[in-house]
Amino acid sequence: MSGARPERGSVYVTRREDYTAVTRVISVKLPVGLIEVLDELIEKGYFQNRSDAIREAIRKLLASYRDLDTQKLSRGLMLGIR
What is the rounded CA–CA span in Å between residue 18 and residue 47? Predict the structure, then answer.
């Protein structure tokens, strides 16, 4: 990727029977109120831990932007814009 920041932080490799995952530790600052609500979701069993919850939130965020881009492209193609 052009213009990408140099890689920093610890890298972890998890090997399972059916896949290998490479993860990196990042630091995120969140308001205390968000952390408290996040911890409540974990206590209720929606997520195993904060990392799982944050990963899922980021996946949904990225999917919503991907859908938005797809909609814009579709509208442009309908109008004959490429």
Answer: 22
